[in-house]
Amino acid sequence: MPRTKIFFDMEFTGLHQNTTLISIGCIADNDRTFYFEFDDYDKTQVNDWIQENVINRLRDPMPFPNSDARDTDHFRMKGEASACKYWLEVWLKSFNNDIEMWSDCLAYDWILFNHLWGHAFNIPECVYYIPFDICTLFKVKDIDPDINREFFAQVENDSKHDALWDAQIIKKCYEKLITIK
Fold it and tell me: Among the residues of 14-162, which ranges form H helices?
């Protein structure tokens, strides 16, 4: 059985070792989505750029009201990292097969994804331990990995740095790239 592909993006407080998560967005190859905003990120690390380009674009979803909400295909919530870990694991396990994680320039995203569970050995067993990077796929297809993603995907929108939007763009790029011979 082929693995489910999950395209994900994370927004965080900066490109440094002690960065903290602001949001995560995921979209599966069947278009099911997961979006979480963290309310426990380190606000002292927020500079003007992060404020303008990330914080000001947050969707501000409501916390999950009860456990019955886990049956939805489109999770939208906010809270502390421990809640994200719990609900993200519920969502990932709901696919009932192994999962490949795809991101864009995933060096920070993959470390922060693993950090949600403490370290890599604690991520859900359904998640394949090797992540995949859309940048590498661009390079393999002989396309400049620094290409504007929205331009390549032929999508016009000014929603960059919204984790779910960026995950959707990664998915669109992947779908286009795999058709290129």
Answer: 48-53, 81-93, 107-115, 134-140, 149-153
